[in-house]
Design a protein that fits this description.
By secondary structure, this protein is an alpha+beta fold. Helix content is 34%, strand content 23%. The protein has a single domain (3-105), classed as first zn-finger domain of poly(adp-ribose) polymerase-1. It has helices at residues 50-63, 73-79, 81-91, 93-99; strands spanning 3-9, 17-18, 25-26, 32-39, 42-49. It has a 3-stranded antiparallel beta sheet with strand order 1-4-5. A two-stranded antiparallel sheet has the order 2-3. A hairpin with a 2-residue loop joins strand 4 and strand 5 (42-49). Helix 2 (73-79) packs across helix 3 (81-91). The termini are far apart. The model has no long low-confidence stretch (mean pLDDT 86).
Length: 115
């Protein structure tokens, strides 16, 4: 897989966009991250809430993924709801709210269940 990052900037939205991380709207007037580049020969642009990008990056770093192994928060939460949900509730509550994560949706380990 080949990837070339062409630009990254933090504009203020002039119209409504969709956050690639949480899949919710980026409202007009919101400062957000915009990235443009080439992925496998095709041009792309990506927009995300600033805090969604920070949360995604932190999860990516903790997972030890390679530079070409990105994650999307909405997929990460779907695949790992207990870990990702607890992490977001603790460190990024606004992101958790946009993804619909609630304390009751995070499954706590059962005491004495192999721990």
């Amino acid at each position: 897989m080949s990837s070339t990052l062409l630009s990254t900037n933090w504009p203020v939205a002039r119209k409504k966009y969709r956050c690639e991380q949480c899949q919710t709207p980026i409202e007009p007037g919101t400062k957000h991250r915009k990235e443009a580049g080439i992925w496998e020969g095709g041009f792309y642009t990506n927009r995300e809430h600033t805090d969604c990008g920070e949360a995604s990056h932190e999860i990516w770093l903790n997972a030890g993924l390679g530079y070409d192994e990105g994650i999307w928060l909405h997929e990460e939460y779907w695949n790992e709801p207990e870990f990702t949900g607890a992490f977001l509730l603790e460190k990024y509550p606004e992101v958790a709210a946009r993804l619909g994560v609630k304390p009751t949706s995070v499954i706590a380990p059962v005491p004495g269940d192999g721990e």
